[in-house]
Amino acid sequence: MDHGLLPAIVSVCAQAGFVPRIRYEALGTPLVLGLVAAGDGVALVSAAVARGPHRGVRFARISTPRAVSPILLAWRRGIPDELAHQLADLLHRAARDVDGAEGAERAEGADRAEGEPPGGT
Fold this sequence. Notes:
Blueprint: H1 6-15, H2 29-37, H3 47-50, H4 81-108
């Protein structure tokens, strides 16, 4: 079972009424962005990636349909399970906070130019 981003991307494309033509599956964000900058296609990346400067790459927020991809938590053997559970709880709370902030942003309307990354340029 693939827990990566690809199944979420394919699902969002299907909801939008098309099937993507996937030429490459690149491992690692730098390689993906390098392919985009070279003019070899487009990519869907997380909003966190768009916050940094990437020469030759433009970002645009996709508001609907919303893509959801699971996040898995891995930890080294020997680390107490309780610590991992506390971290998982913290991440769940942070995700809910981000979800609430993004919902408020959508309700207020976007003040940035089309194609401008989240959080400004």
